[in-house]
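Hey, quick one: can you model this chain's 3D structure?
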Amino acid sequence: MGVLLMALPACTDFDEELEDFCQRNPGRCGIRDAGVRFDAGTGDEEEPVTFQFVQTPQSTSHGEGGEPLTFFVQTQAPARAVVQFTWISSEGTLGPPENTRDSSQVRWTAPACLWVGPWASLSVMARDPQGKTLTALFHVVGIPNCPRWSSTGTMTTGRRGHTATLLPSGEVLVAGAFTGSGNGGQAATTEVYVPATGTWTRTGNMATAREQHTATLLPSGHVLITGGLASNNQPLASAELHLWDRSSSYSQSNTGSMATARYGHTATLLTSGKVLVTGGSGNGGPIGTSVLYDPETKTWAATGSMVSPRHGHTATLLPSGKVLVTGGHADAGGTVLASAEVYDPETERWTSAGLMSDPRRDHTATLLPSGLVLIAGGFTGSIGSSLASAEVYDPSAATWTSTGSMTTGRNFHTATLLPSGKVLLSGGSGNNSSFLYDAELYDPASNAWTPSSNLAMGRFGHTATLLSSGLVLVTGGVSKIPFNEMATSEMHNPGISTWMATQLATSPRINGTLTLLSSGSVLLAGGRYGGAADVSALYDPVANAWTYPEGMLTKRDSHTATLLASDKVLITGGSDEKGTPLVASELYAPTTGAWTSTGNMVSSRTEHTATLLPSGKVLVTGGFDGSRYLATAELYDPGRSVWVLTRSMSEARGSHTATLLPSGKVLVTGGRGSSYTDLKSAEVYDPETGSWTTVAPMPEGRRLHTATLLPSGGVLLAGGAVNEGPATSSAVLYEPTRDRWVTTGGMMQVHSRHTATLLYSGKVLIVGSSQSRKSAELYDPERGTWTLAGLTASTRDSHAAVLLPSGEVLVAGGYESGSDFASAELYTP
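Sure thing. Here's the predicted structure for all 829 residues.
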């Protein structure tokens, strides 16, 4: 042994060969079992070393489809043993790992999309020479689900040449059609699709059977139906108004006639609320005249005629309020046009908008978020001339630019702008009179077309309607084998920017709370339905189901809910059934499902905030005690279950925000002050000293806003009510390191009593508004811009929202159109 030690004077600094020797012969290198090592010079023992991970990938990472990510893991093992590593992924592609004695790194490329589940699962297993293993599991979210089609309810009759109109309720009204020679030809029937149940309901009939007509949703909620072909194949000049309200059933009324009978025309709702009808065909062929419908007077009036007669053309409302008309055929001989023209509602005149690269008819035109217009497909008039070409029109420059060609030439197809900004083209007729099953996507960002999943049935002459959920409903059309009008419907799920309902079978509520538990389940607590409620519910994201444990000890709404380090949930304050602010607090224990009291706060309060501090204590600030707004603040100590006062804020406030900063301090902003004015002031609480420091004031006073800590360390304030006024669309950023406020891009709509959720991507999702809107928006911190994030299934405010481990966002409860309601829905980014 002494000879060996002389040869190895520093046994703790081996080269690779001697290290391997010592691992095989630990007793001969001063190493005992259980990982205990002796120093060669002193013989003193070191601390035992346990085989364990010292670094693993975070449990949830964010990735994009097709994006590479690098993961790293490191272990410690007795005797510095060489560890073997094995990486496994459920999706995507793993590159060769780069291993050292105790660590491993691998590059993983995400799949373009996911067919199963909301995330990709990965794992790494480490094995020591004794056969002991360690396993780390982690997920990657943010990868879109693969687009897919699925069948939905069947209409009561087969249809082509019909219309499909999205109603304010989120339902879809289908009207008229050609139903087939054996079924009476043109139809007067209407029916409504209910997305919540996936079913169709027959409604009242139109006054006149018709096909190839138009249907336009008016601001009043009525649907204006114009023209078309009657059952005797004669063009119609008549128009009628339809109103569907599930509570008051269906109503229909005639609303005058156009000066000229027409079919195959277009109808465009102008910013004035009037409807512009252009072109189409009458008994003598294509028409060049245009007419205006005024919903206020329910009258028709002539307006300027187009430069060219057109049938099979498109009409698109531009951001300027003008209308772009493209292509079509101009005469009974079928001459197909490449020309385009623009209608100006101010002057009621038409002017040329140049020439497209190809003459085309029965194509599609889609207004992109950029303000450009995408023209796709169509045909030139002869058999086998379906076009795959596409081009974009720039209204600001009045220019046409070719864009990449589609994968398949098509006409009589549909084009739908998705919430993601991409455009879905589906079905249609191809060359050789084929009826197309396939669909494809246009991405304006890359100016490229990619195939999407196929329809279950090839069809043309169908309709496609973007639902408020972000899904696309396709109805009817003609199939080739057998050749007939179809009653079937299909639903396209684009995989991103979608909203899906999840039934919440408990009482309606506003001002409840949602809390993500460590198990991944979500606790819904309290709220108001007529009066404060004590009900609670648990949502299981895996099962997509709700269960209902026992209710809280105290009925309350407008309270706070804070997940503690113990995994218990602390509920504080709020208002009782009579609207009186509460002093009581209670705890929910997920392991037992039981509620227990945890003492009273020093003050009764509602409209307050609660913030979990790094110490594990909870800071509660401000609020309303029933007679005045409070400046006081107090701390809850979970270890002792006691409440103690800390120093008061510089100003009394309620309906404010409190945000934990990276420094461990808490930023409090705005709210309603003691004089019932909206505050500009902001201040920071330091848990180390228990003191408050006033910081730079906001540009304007606001309350009922949201505050979100961004990955950069800045804080985004969005919406709310400003300076005692109505809701605002403005947003500002606070930079803690510079103590300054910076204006960022304004939201697309006003929001107050909304929610703001930080996504794994670093973007912020805004949902809801007191202005009865269904819109949701995404804020991109890197660009300082806002984009639409689809339409929620329901309008709502005073609801709750929480980010799930899957990267989805659960939204529940709220207030809609004069009543509290019990719905919940999931957003997939």
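One thing worth noting: Residues 1-19, 21-44 have pLDDT under 50 and may be disordered.
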